Amino acid sequence: MWSVDLPGLATTAHGDAPHPWTDDGASARGFSGIGVYRARLTTPDAAPAGRIELDLGAVHGVARVRVNGRECGITWTSPYRVDVSDAWLEGANEVEIDVAVPWRNRLIAEAARPTGEIFAPMTQVFSADAEVRPAGLAGPVTLVDIA
Known about the structure:
Layout: E1 2-5, E2 12-15, H1 26-29, E3 34-42, E4 52-55, E5 58-60, E6 62-67, E7 70-75, E8 81-83, E9 92-100, H2 104-112, E10 136-139, E11 142-145
Antiparallel strand pairs: 1-2, 1-3, 3-9, 4-8, 4-11, 5-10, 6-7, 6-9
């Protein structure tokens, strides 16, 4: 089961597959910063032999991957893959993926509903009806044997 944590918002369950947090309602749509996706992924039977990568599928932002608490790398362009060989275990694995996005969506939300939290000239960069860009992990997330 996937979930995403956005600072200041409640954890959102995503079910069997992650999706961009901009699909999770108005508050999430207006969030810019770092969201943390979490899942417990289980390797069927045995873990692949040799080197393996976690393929993140589509990512709207820059992703940093940790498996079982170990840093595995950062990816910012397609293919969004990170070598997880040294951290992946047979059976269950705790996966955390930080996705960082620029603050475009936050500025659009501020233009629509000013909070006074952002320096006034910055609130005029985008209009309230500007297009919100997808943000977060879209997947699908898969394990790839690269050896």
